[in-house]
Amino acid sequence: MREIIFDTETTGFNPYSNQGDKNDRIVEIGAIEVIDLKPTGKIFHHYINPERSIPDEVVKIHGIDDEKVKDCPTFDKIAQKWLDFVGDDAKLVAHNAKFDMKFINAELIWAGKSGIQNERVVDTLPMARQTFPGQQATLDALCKKFSIDNSARTYHGALLDSELLLDVYIELRGGKQRGFELASEATNNNNKSIVSKNRPYREFKASQEELKSHNEFIEKQIENSLWKKNN
User: What is the pairing mode between strands 2-10 and 26-35?
Assistant: First the structure.
């Protein structure tokens, strides 16, 4: 199954503020193609000029400022490349996907393209909350739970976060458990072979005295017994 693990960085929280050039926009998009949960080596990554200023408080989160994206393409210039990359049937996997898809579909519509249907989207946030009810379900928290190295994540970054999310997604899909099951099965099979090799079948025959006692018990206790020995 083909899936696209992706993430976005933006200027804020609301692409539909109805304030014209103050609408929040995407400033970075990163994605990784996987087939059957294995990366194919194909990635999509662009910094994007949002055509507005990036607030200082947001820069502190992802490290992307006006200077960094001033010469980058606007989203409408890369919109078709994005659609070509995701294709027509791949599932799109994101953490808190509602947030990312809200921005992506807004940008696609502003670029004169059709939005992506919700049926194609997989959100790992509710998956994580179901797996760990009542616990933190941020990407950092999940990396810690699954012992995934996120030390390079000094800032949020679309491509880096996509790479981390892929590892988290595999674990949420039971990736490590499948490995444990296979290891357990292999261990059990090895143990069976060891038992078979080191403990061969041994026959324990009853003595004549034991057989006599058994037959006397059957005679006295069980009438017409199937186990009664015929002379």
Answer: antiparallel
d(CA 163, CA 32): 7
Strand partners, 26: 10
Is 156 part of the annotated catalytic residue set?
yes
Instruction: Check whether residue 154 and residue 115 sit in a common domain.
Output: yes
Q: Give the pLDDT confidence of 17-57 residue by residue, as tens digits.
A: 766 667 999 999 999 999 999 999 999 999 999 999 999 99
CATH number at residue 68: 3.30.420.10
Q: Which residue has the tokens 């072979």?
A: 193
Annotated catalytic residue, options 45, 95, 156, 214: 156
Instruction: Tell me which residue range forms the domain holding 84.
Output: 2-173
Residue type at 162? S
Beta-bridge partners for 38: 35
Residue 5 — left, alpha, or beta (φ > 0 → left; ψ -120 to 50 → alpha)? beta
Beta bridge partners of 28: 9, 47
- Residue pLDDT, tens place only, 153-170: 888 999 999 999 999 999
Mean pLDDT over the full length of the chain: 84
pLDDT of residue 199: 41
Q: Cβ neighbours of residue 133 under 8 Å, at least 6 residues apart?
A: none
Task: For residues 212-227, give the mean pLDDT.
Answer: 53
76 and 188 share one domain: no
Amino acid at 211: L
The pLDDT value recorded for residue 200 is: 44
User: Which residue carries 């989207």 as its tokens?
Assistant: 121
